[in-house]
Amino acid sequence: MVSVFGLLLLVAVATGNIYLHNPRGSNNRLNEKTAARSNANRLFNSQNNDRGGYNVGDTAEKTHGDSEQTQYRMKYFQSGPKYKVLDEGQGRSHMTLEWTNQHGCGSGNKRQNCNIVFQYMCEETVESDKGTPSDENMLRNGDTVRTAKYVPRTRPGETEAEMSTRRTQSVRTDSAQHESWQSYDNCVTRRRNEGLFTADQTLAVDKMSGYSGATHTRQSPDGERWGYECPEERDYFPYWHPAPWRDIAVLAETDAVCGHYQKSSFNVRPYHECMEFWDVSRTRRKPYSSWNNKRDCETHGGTWEQLYSYLEKSPVYASQTACESASRDGVHYIWAVPYDTSDGSRQCLVRLDEPTCRSAPWSRSNHLGNGRFGAANNLTWVLPYFPSGKSQACVLRVRYNVTSEDYDPSRTDHRYNNEKSPVTDDPYVDVDAGGSTLKLAVDTAHFGRVFQDRTHVFILRPRPPSVGEKARIYNLNVRGKRGNIVQAFPAVEYDFFPRRLSLRPDDLVHVQWTGSNSHHNGGPRGDGQTGADGEGKAGTDRNNLVQISDLNKNFPMPFENTTMWSNVEVVWIYHGKTELTSRDLALNMASSGYFVCLKKSDCSESAEDSLPLNTKLDNTSPSYEGALLRFKKGRYHFMCTRNNNYTNRSQKGTIIVH
Ligand SMILES: *[C@@H]1O[C@H](CO)[C@@H](O)[C@H](O)[C@H]1NC(C)=O
Ligand SMILES: *[C@@H]1O[C@H](CO)[C@@H](O)[C@H](O)[C@H]1NC(C)=O
Ligand SMILES: *[C@@H]1O[C@H](CO)[C@@H](O)[C@H](O)[C@H]1NC(C)=O
Ligand SMILES: *[C@@H]1O[C@H](CO)[C@@H](O)[C@H](O)[C@H]1NC(C)=O
Ligand SMILES: *[C@@H]1O[C@H](CO)[C@@H](O)[C@H](O)[C@H]1NC(C)=O
């Protein structure tokens, strides 16, 4: 009896969900061979089931995601320098984001209110350098699924040296990191916002400080830790203190609230934080403060400072005049104090734009599938342009926030806490059912609840010189992971994504894919099925691209009949050799990069001079950095020879050039 009850409880708690399918969301997985993720606290609080999520990409035939050095990072070209001022969307690079969410959302869905927020964070990177153990602040996927450590303060008035020691003891350079240790330490130290509605939840108090920090919220009252994510920041948007996330888009409850979201975005307005310093001359900023409001901050000798977010810093402009007068072509520089300042001084920052906002697309309740128009809901992100010309390591985050109208969230605050709470756990209701009461399923920690998914680290790289400023770039990728539909669920089976691209003759397509060698989907299975049915070596993802004459065909065209490879210009390709014959390009795509060209005399990885390609692509890499291609007018259909499995799975796509 006890175990049955335990099981029910587990199922009841592990519900919910938002899953990113393109780019691949991790749902906190790294490289597990199991169907269920092994560490739900690895990086962020998802509130999702343990199933779902995609492993980090691998670069080689036999690697397993257990070394940052051999993991593959998707590489997307940034927009061009003038993309904000050119007509007709010229200069833009597009990444189409696709996700599924469970509870239903959007206009016409009256069952609950909901909003979806997309954000990203980036840091400058050297693509070939994925981090050395001294890089304590670096964004990384890590080599293990273990959560980074956190060593708390042992006394309130610690010294700078004591703080550094804690930091060194905490940060595990083999664990993943998105938010920095420093930002988490700040979250622990800063008093939580006591004006918030916490229903009848009891928020734990930290023993050392005697108060609850911003790590305690209604949704996570105990102060549980998920990577270095700040729970108060996670649960609320727009957040009222600085955070490292840049807003991409808000898919709002209704259009009417978009003005509020756009004006309140940290992209375009500063937020306050209490600045305190280690030294009397106020040059070395303490990275944390316990004060969360002006009065308390100033009373205790701090400065209540407005801090700014930014796309990147521009140290080349060292004065206010140089900074502000550098603005041009839609790139705006501001002279302001960045949110992560170490000395409180102003610097030259590239300003962000307000996020896109519109009402959330409709989705059906209790369903992780298509939206209203027969495709999973999606959003096209116009990738930023970084004026420094440097590559950026980035992660993308989506949060999905479900609320009800059982109380008004905009008016219900701390005055309604505890015994005044409008909601209580699992209440009994009297509906005049012949003297019996009925019990409802309510968890006040989840009545109003945020779900989340994040990608692995990817790269936003500058456009190569061969790509003009005006070219529009569209990313063509592969979504999904190994397994049949029930085994992979709530991740999805393989398919090209976007499945259909409609282009103008001067547009560019960046074909690229990634996969894992450890999608074995074994036990523990969580609440789904184990198994990873598919072709080729167990547990491995592989892809390729060959032309078919019609979407209803499942046999590739013989090379002699293809039009894709003769009607194309290679503007950039990962191996640098753009003077390829159409045969070489076809071979490269069909072999997932295993062959670069046909003839020994033309390249080193030639079909004439290499070991044969495995018929199921087993000896290729699961990731293919790809090429930027410009197709001539026409209609091109393609498929993947390994994964397309007639009646079991369709992995096909179309490019139409008008
Ligand atoms: C979720 O919705 C509630 C109620 O509107 C709001 O207070 C909170 O800030 C939202 N959180 C996020 C992450 O959108
Ligand atoms: C994105 O959603 C729209 C509207 O549902 C749909 O028409 C379009 O095909 C979707 N795009 C992709 C790439 O799935
Ligand atoms: C595809 O078909 C083969 C039989 O040719 C089967 O063994 C395999 O499991 C199928 N793949 C999926 C994912 O269904
Ligand atoms: C290839 O093209 C030739 C010549 O047009 C045609 O006879 C043949 O049927 C085509 N083969 C296929 C498989 O489409
Ligand atoms: C589809 O997959 C099943 C196993 O999942 C397999 O038995 C069957 O042969 C496959 N069908 C085809 C046409 O490959």
Automatic annotation (TrEMBL):
Q: Which N-terminal stretch is annotated as signal sequence?
A: 1-16
- InterPro entries, A to Z: Protein_DD3-3_O-glyco
- Per UniProt, the ranges with Gly residues bias are 523-533
Q: Does the keyword Signal apply?
A: yes
Highest taxon above the source species: Eukaryota
Keyword Transport tagged: no
Q: Where is the composition biased (Basic and acidic residues)?
A: 408-418
> What segments bear the compositional bias annotation Polar residues?
166-178
What are the start and end residues of every segment in region (Disordered)? Answer: 43-68, 154-178, 407-429, 514-542
Cite the entry's keywords alphabetically. Answer: Signal
PANTHER family in the cross-refs: PROTEIN DD3-3
Task: Identify this protein by name.
Answer: Protein DD3-3
Show the taxonomic lineage: Eukaryota, Metazoa, Spiralia, Lophotrochozoa, Annelida
